[in-house]
Amino acid sequence: MDLGIAGKWALVCGASKGLGLGCAEALVREGVNLVVNARNAGQLELSTANLIAAGAAAAVARGQNAEAPQVLAVAADITTPEGRAAAFAVAGGPGKNFDIVVTNAGGPPPGDFREWERQDWLAAVDANMLTPIELLRATVDGMAARGFGRIVNITSSAVKAPIDILGLSNGARSGLTGFVAGVARSGIAARGVTINNLLPGKFDTDRLAGTIGAAAARSGKGVDELRRTQQAAIPAGRFGRPQEFGAICAFLCSLQAGYITGQNILADGGAYPGSF
Fold first, then answer.
1. Between 26 and which of 38, 70, 126, 250 could a Cys-Cys bridge form, CB atoms 3.0 to 4.6 Å apart?
2. In the chain, where do the E strands start and end?
3. Rounded CA gap, 12 and 38, in Å?
């Protein structure tokens, strides 16, 4: 299926590895020009080189003199005003005139809510609620004026089924979910702009490896044993792959997904047991 977004410009945050990189790979293979962002400059440089190669290969496969998409990297903290300004000001980029924005920031640490101070809550809300809102605020009116826009927020399955030790994430991301539910149904929906949240369950990323490693250290069980136990609890019988997560994201950014907005798309291998 041709997603109809070749030549568009996308900002993909947290794109040096994991789910963000999976989204960037899927988009660049569709011919989308990218501004990719992450804090780790070295890792981002490696990922950017791979994205450029993937985009060039996809252009050759499309044929008919298809141009390879551009991939521009911005090593900065997108949760800060300075980081967002850098992403919008990168040389050769579209400024604030992005057609697609994929918001993504690392989740706050797990723990016991009794130990969290006010600053912990503010940091979580700033990174996982206010930063996506700021990116949306900077780009959504331009999208509406041009008649096309796609915003996808990578949140968490914990929005649907809260996890007790992830209270900071539960709270901040749920706040974003409520905000999106309203703004996605405002006047922008009739002007070709969609806003959706993509909720990952357990995907085989560095973050999951870190979480399992920490659980193993606490419990005294082996990492491999915990991986098998967690996979067995998922109806699909495995962890997700970043590439398949990226494919879902790319579809939500497509022309064909123009009638999907204000939704929370859960990708968790069937782990959530509810009907709704």
1. 250
2. 9-12, 33-38, 71-75, 100-103, 149-154, 193-200, 264-267
3. 9
Give CA–CA dist 205/45, Å, rounded. Answer: 19
Long-range contacts, stretch 173-178, CB < 8 angstroms, 24+ apart: 173/107, 173/128, 173/129, 175/125, 175/129, 176/128, 176/129, 176/132, 176/133, 177/264
The span from the CA of 261 to the CA of 259, in Å, is 6
Token code pair at residue 90: 């990168």
- Pick from 130, 129, 13, 20: which is nearest to 76 by CA? 13
CA distance 210 to 202: 12
Please, what is the end-to-end C-alpha distance for the chain in angstroms? Answer: 29
Chain centroid, CA 36 distance in Å: 11
Contact yes or no for 113/167 (Cβ under 8 A): yes
* SS3 state of residue 6: coil
**Residue range 97-147, pLDDT digits in tens:** 999 999 998 888 888 899 999 999 999 999 999 999 999 999 999 999 999
CA 55/CA 166 separation, integer angstroms: 36
pLDDT score of 250 more than 80: yes
In degrees to the nearest 10, what's the CA dihedral of 140, 122, 81, 206?
-80
What predicted TM-score, i.e. pTM, was given to this entire model? 0.95
Nearest to 233 by CA among 273, 274, 275: 273
